[in-house]
Write a structure and sequence with these properties.
This protein has one domain (16-106). 41% of the residues lie in helices and 20% in strands. It contains three helices and five strands, in the order ααβββββα.
């Protein structure tokens, strides 16, 4: 038996509801799936896009190879794709429309 002191749980760990933990994990998975669908639509339009950071972000490359890529996230509670520091957004329910708008934005 070890004489080392046990790590005591902090206030956050004690107050987290297990149901909330599962809900957060499910939301993150849903956001990743939304980005996968957007990437697939962009690829169909001939736009080079790749998933990054465990499917939490989509990096969309500009076709000319010049300039910075556009980073796309799922935000606003999972309701919108957002880019350009959330100044641009499109509903996640319209994946084809979001891909078209994003392709035009990057200058396909």
């Amino acid at each position: 038996m070890s004489r080392l002191p046990r790590k005591r749980l902090g206030r956050r760990e004690r107050n987290v509801n297990p149901i909330d933990l599962v809900a957060v994990a499910y939301m993150d998975q849903g956001e990743g799936e939304k980005l996968v669908r957007l990437r697939d639509h962009l690829t169909g339009l001939g736009v080079n896009a790749e998933l990054r950071d465990n499917n939490t972000a989509l990096m969309v490359h500009r076709p000319s190879g010049g300039g910075m890529p556009v980073w796309v996230f799922v935000g606003y509670g999972g309701a919108y794709y957002s880019w350009q520091s959330a100044a641009k957004r499109h509903p996640v329910d319209d994946v084809a429309g979001a891909a078209t708008v994003l392709a035009a934005y990057v200058g396909r």
